[in-house]
Amino acid sequence: MSGGGCSIVWFRRDLRVEDNPALAAGVRAGAVIAVFIWAPEEGHYYPGRVSRWWLKQSLAHLDSSLKSLGTSLITKRSTDSISSLLEVVKSTGATQLFFNHLYDPISLVRDHRAKEVLTAQGISVCSFNADLLYEPWEVNDDEGRPFTTFSAFWERCLSMPYDPEAPLLPPKRIISGDASRYLSDNLVFEDESEKGSNALLARVWSPGWSNADKALTTFVNGPLLEYSQNRRKADSATTSFLSPHLHFGEVSVRKVFHFVRIKQVLWANEGNKAGEESVNLFLKSIGLREYSRYMSFNHPYSHERPLVGHLRYFPWVVDEGYFKAWRQGRTGYPLVDAGMRELWATGWLHDRIRVVVSSFFVKVLQLPWRWGMKYFWDTLLDADLESDALGWQYISGTLPDGREFDRIDNPQFVGYKCDPRGEYVRRWLPELARLPTEWIHHPWNAPESVLEAAGIELGSNYPLPIVEIDAAKVRLEQALSQMWQHEAAARAAIENGMEEGHGDSADSPIAFPQAMQMEMDHEPARNNPVIVNVRRYEDQMVPSMTSSLFRAEDEETSVEIRNSVVDNREEVPTDVNVAEDPRRDTVDQAVVQTARTNATPHFNFAVGRRNSEDSTAESSSSTRERDGGVVPVWSPSSTNYSDQYVGDNNGIGTY
Predict the structure, then answer these.
(1) pTM of structure
(2) Is 384 annotated as a binding residue?
């Protein structure tokens, strides 16, 4: 055990000893103190039950691995990670801090401030890319600007002049720093009421970095070959199931990328066209996860605001009855209901089903997309803010290359594509188990004799459709017409010098329903200063939270994200994209009131990374990275964000 002069390795969402550049740097530097700080108040939302369960198991697995290598994991409960890091430094005499990058806006600002504060205390701070194939600032168009569509972005990634580096091996042993004067906190991730449900998760899932390696090997040597044929099937295990492992960094996306590319070369040499097609599709889903970080870095408010300006004026339906029916799997559409019941029971959804239930939420029920995104955050094992924001924006048509907003997918027809035999529906809707396959996805059309034989009484033991598809189409057309009228009125007001006229109604926040029972933090606000002037760091760029990514009238609301670094977590981030509108029942007379990983678009998947070497000012950098290791200053366009996308019709919905 070594004394002073040791290094702190700050674990976050990189809970592995293999291919962990921060850990590798710490081991090279000498004695290591491994630290994990549980500070959920610093995030956008408090993690859900199943996500917390996974984190608990993953940390235990990591601690066991570290102990086998010669050290252990110090855990700390905190509301301020930087203060906790300073405490560790003071009690251990550490002189260096190593950590891996995160890309959500709050983490970017917090990590930047950590470098400011610890550097001022004489601590050398080095950070690394452990989550992406390429850093966001490395991938730009020919004019040096960020890409605005996935297809162009991914094409550039695949044609970069250098490949993502090979994954790093785990250290053979770790010299432990002296942390005897710093006691770990016992982290509590579940209460008594949650333990019973959580115990069921352990029957299906095995968190931890070595289990992630096993899952990757199983997929690459098995389902990957027929991924292109089977990826949309919801009634069988056809995907990788890697997304929770990837979210917590138990396996690096760089390793995933290299493993899959090895198979691609092998199958290409064998002339295996089906295998090559499967690899290309799977890598595209990897690319979508990469793109989610790219979007979060370049447009920090993508989890709150539509990225196409006119959709700020869409009159969402604010109906908690609809929302409750969707959550409980009581919409009357079997494929949607089966998906929502699976989500609640297991914390998991096949990605094709994620598309189905989210599309129904936005297009048929026309509920605010942020409600759905937040519910996914609360209930998914692989809850991932960046990936889920990208997925929900895509479905909502709020991305420049998202789905057409006036497109409604009928769950009946989709059901016979991804669940042709009805096995998935029968598994999660036992009340429909005896219904013949001919009617399994549209029981409302079944003859009364068939329903009676199957023991089904529509409107009693299984609901009638909450909204008829034809009525939803009419209502959506009217809502879109209303949206264009609002947008035109707002533009006219701006042109007439009345910026505070019509535009304000579009910025009225719609609070999350109380029924979601969001977990709140009531810690007192901290007195950390807000960072306004962002310095250049040679290892990681930090987007300015004061940059004008959106219209001028959005500036006031952008302050809330900046202040979220200072204040305790908000219950609901300010929503500036919703025009509140009561339920429009006038066009819904037909409504009957009752009340992973890894298809496309990929909500929660992962991608690799580059730059395992120390990339700080003190270290050398290869010429293929950046001249002298210097990262260009991040500078967003001064133009209206939504105006950048006019006429850009490249689609995400083709993978």
Answers:
(1) 0.79
(2) yes
227 is in an annotated binding site: yes
Rounded to an integer, what distance in angstroms lies between the CA atom of residue 219 and that of residue 245?
A: 13
Strands in 96-100's sheet, in edge-to-edge order, are 73-77, 32-38, 7-11, 96-100, 124-128
- Token pair 């066209």 in the structure block, residue: 273
- The token pair at 72 is 């252990």
241 annotated as a binding-site residue: yes
Residue found by looking up tokens 């290309």 in the block = 280
CB-based contacts of 100, cutoff 8 Å, min separation 6: 12, 14, 20, 21, 22, 127, 128, 129, 130, 131, 249
pLDDT tens digit sequence for 162-220: 999 899 999 999 999 998 888 899 999 998 999 888 998 999 999 999 999 999 999 99
pLDDT in tens, 531-582: 333 333 334 454 443 332 333 333 333 323 333 333 332 232 333 333 334 3
Q: Is 497 exposed, middle or buried (0-12, 13-18, 19+ CB in 10 A)?
A: exposed
602 pLDDT higher than 80: no
The pLDDT assigned to 516 comes to 62
Which residues are registered as beta bridge partners of 34?
A: 9, 73
Confirm or deny that 550 is annotated as ligand binding: no
The answer on whether 99 is annotated among ligand-binding residues is: no
Mean pLDDT, residues 464-481 taken together = 94
Question: Is 424 one of the annotated binding-site residues?
Answer: no
SS3 586: helix
* Structure token pair of residue 406: 């006036």
Check whether 243 is labelled as a binding-site residue: yes
Find out whether 282 is annotated in a ligand binding site.
yes
- Two structure tokens written together for 154: 């991914």
Q: How far apart are CA 156 and CA 150, in angstroms?
A: 10
Gap between the Cα atoms of 456 and 460, Å rounded: 8
CA distance 126 to 259: 28
Q: Do 553 and 426 meet the contact criterion of CB atoms below 8 Å apart?
A: no
**Secondary structure in 3-state letters for 415-476:** HHHHCCCCHHHHHHCHHHCCCCHHHCCCHHHCCHHHHHHCCCCECCCECCCCCCHHHHHHHH
Q: Which amino acid is at 170?
A: P
Q: What span, in angstroms and rounded, lies between the C-alpha atoms of 503 and 506?
A: 6
Which pLDDT value is given to residue 486? Answer: 87
- Residue 260: phi, psi to the nearest 5? -70, -40
**How many CB atoms sit inside 10 A of residue 475's CB?**
24
Contacts of 159 (CB under 8 A, 6+ apart): none
Identity at 227, one-letter amino acid code: Y
Q: Nearest CA to 623 among 638, 635, 633, 613? A: 613
Distance (Å) of CA 8 to CA 23, 113, 339: 9, 17, 43
Buried b / exposed e along 319-331 (16+ C-beta atoms within 10 A): beebbebbbebbb
- Give the distance between the most distant pair of CA atoms in the chain: 80
C-alpha 565/C-alpha 561 separation (Å) is: 7
Q: Please give the C-alpha separations between residue 338 and each of 301, 392, 415, 417, 441, in angstroms, as whole numbers.
A: 32, 20, 11, 15, 11
Task: Return the DSSP state at 568.
Answer: S
